[in-house]
UniProtKB/TrEMBL annotation:
SUPFAM superfamilies: 4Fe-4S ferredoxins (SSF54862). It comes from Sinomonas humi. This is Ferredoxin. It comes from the Bacteria.
Amino acid sequence: MSRAQLELHIDFARCDGRGLCTELLPELLVRDDWGYPVGRGGRDVRVPEPLATAAQDAVDLCPLQALMLRRVTRA
């Protein structure tokens, strides 16, 4: 059985390390030594349902549109 999950994707080519997303989503993102966001689960971070609104806020508020939410289906 497959399920759709929400994932947060970080586009590192667009990001300039302002860090707003790490402040909005500390449960999912941390900053590296240069201030860039790093997902606690890798480049594409699974977003638990209770954090969906905060993840959408991070996407909407990113000044360089370096974040994207997408639904993925996993088996």
